[in-house]
UniProtKB/TrEMBL annotation:
PANTHER family: BETA-TUBULIN COFACTOR D (PTHR12658), TUBULIN-SPECIFIC CHAPERONE D (PTHR12658:SF0). Gene3D superfamilies: Leucine-rich Repeat Variant. It comes from Podospora anserina (strain S / ATCC MYA-4624 / DSM 980 / FGSC 10383). Residues 966-1157 form the Tubulin-folding cofactor D C-terminal domain. This is Tubulin-specific chaperone D.
Length: 1246
């Protein structure tokens, strides 16, 4: 759960000005017609295209602002004013025209309805989107408030009941609720039409719609008579209309003139009756009724309008909830609405009755409410728990101090329920029996109470204990999913609220002696303890929002209470909100940085790393980072103590203690602990300082005990079978690699090393070049004791691990194999290498057995120590083994494994670099691998790895065979349709470009680190699917290095254009829509630059037609791209042999069953007829005539389309021939009629 490297909110801030400017420009053009010059009036549109409306809403305009909605605030007034005026103008236009708005929907033509929509619908969509982003309470304030708009909007909303979309109904109801703020009595602004005798029947029909609403309808204003049935109807809607209808009814019922007419009383009584309907209703009915009651109660908080109904409403709603009425309580939204109603009643009652002890009814009502809300804290749905916790905090704020403290005690008692004493660690709590949902509700309630400062200061000790416990709370289901994230998030909120609401003096007075919160220095204040817990959570928590929440709470804690936390300001700067976004960075960089500030933070993080947030994490990549972090923190803490090796020994013993206590099924924890022990060994060279004192008793004790521990762990891994053996194998392989400095120190302390060398960590040893490894091997003396046992055990295990099919195990197993070879004696080393070479060389006879990447990688890595062997032919043996297996085994995965091994070992062993002439044909063959199976283009994996191998060869400026053999293939792959392959080829191609075309200032050397300049390079900065990228490919030779461009391959444009276009056409024809648009746009712009360029392009495409006649992968896209260029009229007739082109197309279509190829050929024939000349034009006509009698109707229809295009173009005076194509279905016509048509059109030819 990592945040992206560049957060979406940061990206949005950068582009927000452009998005807003674009919306400002497009909105008026979208709403109003373009007027002639000099005409300043604006005429609103009737209809707009649905695509244009969606474009204003989609990702490139409004939708991105959901991340930072406040960025729209300065512009909402202008936009909504423009939208509302256009909306009303559209209503007025419909009122003055001869048809209503409902006629804008063309029900007889659904295709047209999908393309064109009424302007009111489009505006409603935009306004709803703004409400979704910014909230309807903010947006509704900017809607027009002209009283004269009330009845037109009401009429529009009434029409929406049948034909309009839900967005229009929602906006209409919401706007009406805003207009009901009018300070005039509705009777004075209502039309008299509804009091006429002619409309009596219509009124009666509307009155009967609302069952149970007892009103004197004849005394009500016309607007009220129309609004009530309309809003009540949508109150039971399952969509957003329900929210707008609720707001409209609340606004109407609370108007003073409506209360005088009895509307409020009737609506409340109707709502209470609606909770007990005679017939079964949908859950949305109850949600609407309850939300109306909650809205009325909340809106009348400062008045006494609802006081007479409080008891009645409470008993009705609470009774429905307590009786578990299925339709009411089945929905989470209904339960949330019940909580809002009961909360509002209790708040109003507390406002009215100050002394509850004198009012038995009021006291019972409040106590019942609190009990009900406490029960709701364990609800299965998060919105219900949120509502209940907030309600409890609001009610507690209005209680006296004694009753408020009782509420806090009830919450704390709930947090202690089912909490057991730790069996393994007596000082800690066992939370395995608690309900995580109830804990979330209780923790959230506690946080809300702290935010409103309800708990007294003397209860803070228990509260802090609960918050810190919640900060590390976790529960996992049997499937591995987490259910503790909500609890930890609520705990962060609670600590943040506590830091804001309580003074430093109050918090420092909180006793900490009785707290069970892990290891802390004696006398630490509650602020220091809380800060340490937040640091651990910010560095280790798997959830990104918890890490950031902990960072924010830490900043609030230290900022509000300065000089109370060790290195406070520096801790805030280190545990930064953005620094902890990436978990790997938080685990390693941030944790190490805060440990350097004070050891107390490092100790807390180390303790947490051995728990579920560290070695017990479900993600394997996170456990690898945990191992590295555990070792780095241990080394840093060791350097601060008088006896560093003792600190290392403590960490190893602590991890081994946890390891021995694990059950066999706890494989993930075992994997994490092995990685952690390996991390400690990696820090050993840093602690001893490279050149160690090998006579030191402390050093001798540590290395001997560590060597024995490694052997013990390896024997345990061999003796037992685990659920996921690949994880244990990876951890053990990593331990073998990291044990290298321990073994080197063992040999040095025992005096068997010939010439002691500087101790380096295992990963650093693996990364060293062949010369340094050879020097180390020769410096080592006789292999005895633990070293010999280590080699024996490792060889046994590697025999199984190198056969793995797990990609994550191949690299550590190969590195472990190299470590084993380093500590083997000469004879054993040569025997092992020959054994691996034999396995790699020979293809398995059984189809069920396959040699995967383990042996390939191990053999490639062994090349770095081949110089230490007495037999000089070992290097040739290694190379020959790879080549022979490549040539004899066509299996795609084998080729991928070979290329991966060569690429990875190149920087270490130099296998690929030293044997370029041997492996260059393999790489070239891999770049041309287009193997396709039932799984798809599996050859793309080989091409991808071959590109990486090419990059490894091009680390130095290439020339000669390295250019001539590979660059044209890389150029083709840089333009092909697969994004993954094209992106990798783009990076490879940048290695042979001139610095001024690759780098911005300052120009770096060609062999500079590519990752460090990735975002400063213009060629790399252009995305691999952009028009600019493909344009640069078409003009590439001028940008190449001189050593590359001087090759004969680039002396003739056809030499490099043909390979480039063979890949380019796949992107321009069969890629995704955006890719096709970008490639064709770049190609068209390039051709328009010069007729000579166009001729070169067309010539290369025709040459590819001749070369790839039997390769439909290239042939069909080439036909389509040629057709596209002819259709764009950019091809000049001069210089092209049109007849040869037609003959090549004829050959491509001969006896083919590929319909798409036939359609491409037909389209190309049509283009030749229109753009070609001479014999080529006549040949194209003849071929169209021949295909007209094709047995497949689809092909004949395609020919007719091209003929109509030719004859309707108006060229050569053949317009009358086009009329003969009309009125007949040529796909279903008999052959005689078709032949007659061909003769009449003169398409038979000679």
């Amino acid at each position: 759960m990592d945040a992206p490297v560049e957060d979406s909110d940061i990206k949005l801030q950068k582009v927000s000005a452009d998005l807003i400017s674009e919306f400002d420009t497009r909105l008026p053009l979208f709403l109003f017609r373009r007027q002639r010059s000099g005409d300043s009036s604006q005429k609103v549109r009737k209809q707009v295209t649905a695509r244009e409306a969606d474009g204003l809403i989609a990702e490139k305009c409004l939708d991105p602002f959901q991340e930072l909605p406040q960025l729209l605030d300065p512009h909402l007034s202008r936009w909504i004013s423009l939208l509302s005026s256009a909306f009303v103008s559209s209503l007025n236009l419909a009122a003055t025209s001869s048809h209503s708005l409902s006629n804008d929907y063309d029900t007889a033509n659904p295709e047209k309805e999908a393309l064109l929509i009424p302007l009111t619908q489009a505006i409603s969509k935009i306004i709803y989107t703004l409400c979704k982003i910014r909230g309807e309470k903010v947006v509704v304030r900017f809607l027009g408030n002209e009283v004269s708009w009330l009845e037109p909007l009401l009429s529009f909303t009434e029409q929406c009941q049948k034909t309009k979309t839900w967005e229009e109904r929602y906006v209409g109801l919401l706007w009406l609720s805003h207009l009901l703020f009018a300070p005039f009595d509705l009777a004075t602004i209502s039309s008299n039409n509804y009091e006429d005798a002619d409309d009596e029947d219509e009124d009666e029909e509307k009155k009967t719609v609302v069952e149970g609403l007892d009103l004197q309808w004849e005394k009500l204003p016309g607007i009220t008579v129309r609004v009530l049935p309309l809003a009540i109807r949508y109150l039971a809607s399952p969509g957003k209309e329900r929210d707008a209808a609720k707001a409209l009814l609340v606004r109407l019922a609370l108007r003073r003139d409506m209360q005088e007419l009895g509307v409020l009383d009737a609506m409340v009584r109707w709502a209470l009756k609606a909770l007990r309907p005679k017939q079964e209703k949908t859950p949305y009915h109850y949600i609407g009724v309850l939300s109306f009651l909650a809205g009325v109660l909340t809106s009348s908080a400062d008045t006494s309008d609802m006081d007479p109904y409080l008891v009645m409403v409470f008993h009705a709603v609470h009774g429905a909830a307590e009786n578990s009425q299925e339709s009411v309580m089945a929905s989470a939204l209904a339960r949330k609405a019940v909580i809002k109603v009961i909360r509002a009643v209790a708040v109003l009652f507390l406002r009215e009755n100050k002394d509850l002890y004198e009012d038995i009814v009021g006291l019972g009502l409040v106590e019942t409410t609190i009990g009900f809300l406490l029960d709701c804290l364990g609800d299965n749905d998060t919105p219900v728990r949120f509502a209940a916790s907030k309600a409890l905090s609001i009610i507690a704020l209005r209680l006296d101090q004694y009753m408020a403290s009782q509420v806090v005690e009830a919450v704390l008692e709930g947090l202690n329920k089912n909490v057991l004493k730790g069996r393994e660690t007596p000082g800690k709590k066992d939370l395995s029996a608690v309900n995580p949902l109830e804990w979330h509700g209780l923790m959230l309630t506690l946080s809300h109470l702290l935010y409103r400062r309800s708990p007294p200061a003397d209860q803070l000790a228990e509260i802090v204990q609960a918050l810190i416990t919640g900060l590390s709370f976790e529960r996992r289901a049997l499937s591995g999913s987490s259910s503790g994230t909500n609890v930890r998030d609520a705990a962060c909120f609670g600590i943040w609220a506590m830091a804001r609401r309580y003074t430093t003096k109050e918090l420092l007075a909180v006793p900490t002696e009785s707290m069970i919160i892990g290891a802390h220095a004696p006398g630490s204040s509650v602020l220091q303890i809380t800060a340490t817990g937040l640091v651990a959570a910010a560095c280790l928590d798997p959830a990104g929002n918890i890490r950031r929440g902990s960072s924010a709470a830490l900043q609030e804690l230290i900022g509000r209470h300065p000089d109370t936390v060790t290195e406070g300001i520096w801790v805030v700067q280190t545990v930064d909100y953005h620094a902890v976004a990436l978990r790997a960075r938080a685990l390693q960089e941030v944790a190490l940085g805060v440990t350097k500030l004070s050891p107390r933070y490092g100790e807390a993080i180390l303790e947490a790393l051995l728990g579920w947030r560290g070695v017990g994490d479900v993600d394997a990549a996170s456990r690898r980072a945990v191992g590295a972090s555990f070792g780095a923190l241990t080394a840093e803490l060791a350097l601060t103590t008088p006896d560093p090796l003792k600190r290392l020994r403590q960490s190893v013993s602590l991890a081994k203690g946890v390891l021995t206590s694990l059950q066999a099924r706890q494989v993930e924890e075992r994997h994490g602990l092995l990685m952690s022990i390996a991390g400690v060994f990696d820090g050993f060279p840093k602690v001893v300082g490279g050149q160690a004192d090998y006579k030191s008793e402390s050093l001798i004790s540590f290395v001997n005990s560590s060597a024995d521990g490694v052997l013990e762990i390896l024997e345990d891994c061999n003796a037992k079978t685990y659920r996921r053996p690949e994880l244990v194998a990876e951890g053990a392989s990593r331990l073998i690699i990291s044990a290298a400095p321990i073994l080197q120190a063992v040999m040095s302390t025992s005096g068997v090393q010939n010439s002691p060398t500087a101790i380096v960590s295992g990963p650093e040893l693996i990364e060293e070049n062949a010369g340094e490894i050879t020097q180390l091997v020769r410096a080592l003396g006789e292999r005895e004791g633990p070293v010999k046992g280590f080699v024996k055990l490792t060889r046994t295990y590697l025999a199984k691990w190198l056969l793995t099919q797990e990609p994550d195990l191949i690299t550590p197993a190969a590195d472990a194999a190299l470590t084993m070879l380093i500590f083997s004696d000469d004879g054993e080393r040569e025997e092992i290498v020959r054994e691996w070479a034999g396995i790699v060389r020979h293809r398995p006879t059984s189809s069920r057995v396959a040699t995967w990447g383990g042996h390939f990688s191990a053999l490639a890595m062994s090349y770095s120590i081949a110089s230490t062997l007495q037999t000089v032919q070992i290097k040739n043996l290694i190379c020959d083994s790879f080549v022979e297996r490549w040539n004899t085994d066509p299996y795609t995965d084998v080729h991928v494994a070979v290329l991966q091994s060569l690429t990875r070992s190149n920087s270490k062993s130099g296998l690929l670099r030293d044997n370029t002439d041997i492996f260059l044909p393999l790489i070239a063959e891999g770049l041309d691998d287009y193997t396709t199976t039932a799984q798809g283009d599996v050859g793309s994996m080989v091409r991808f790895q071959a590109i990486r191998a090419t990059k490894a060869l091009w680390t130095e400026p290439p020339s000669g065979p390295l250019v001539e053999g590979l660059i044209l293939r890389i150029l083709r792959l840089a333009a092909e349709k697969l994004d993954r392959v094209r992106a990798e080829a783009q990076v490879a191609l940048s290695l042979v470009l001139k610095p001024e075309h690759v780098f911005r200032r300052p120009p770096l050397s060609h062999h500079a680190n590519l990752s460090s300049i990735r975002f400063r390079a213009p060629f790399l900065q252009t995305t691999f699917s952009s028009t600019a990228y493909f344009t640069s490919l078409l003009s590439l030779p001028s940008k190449l290095l001189d050593s590359v461009s001087s090759s004969t391959l680039f002396s003739n444009p056809q030499e490099w254009l043909c390979p480039l276009l063979s890949g380019y056409v796949s992107s321009a024809d069969t890629g995704n829509e955006e890719l096709v648009i970008a490639t064709r746009s770049a190609l068209l712009s390039h051709c328009l630059a010069s007729p000579d360029i166009t001729l070169d392009i067309v010539t290369a495409l025709i040459s590819n037609l001749r070369t790839h006649q039997k390769n439909d992968r290239v042939l069909v896209p080439t036909l389509e791209v040629l057709r596209f260029l002819l259709d764009m009229s950019v091809v000049s007739p001069e210089g092209i042999n049109w007849k040869t082109l037609c003959l090549l197309v004829q050959k491509a279509a001969y006896k083919t069953g590929n319909v798409r190829k036939l359609e491409a050929c037909i389209g190309l024939y049509g283009g030749v007829v229109l753009q070609g000349e001479g014999e080529g034009r006549e040949e194209a006509k003849k071929r169209l005539g021949a295909l007209m009698v094709h047995p497949w109707p689809r092909v004949r229809s395609a020919v007719v389309d091209q003929l109509w295009r030719v004859y309707s173009s108006g060229s050569n005076g053949e317009e009358e021939k086009g009329g003969k194509l009309l009125g007949t279905d040529w796909g279903a016509t008999n052959k005689g009629s078709i032949q007659q048509l061909v003769n009449e059109l003169g398409l038979t030819g000679a």
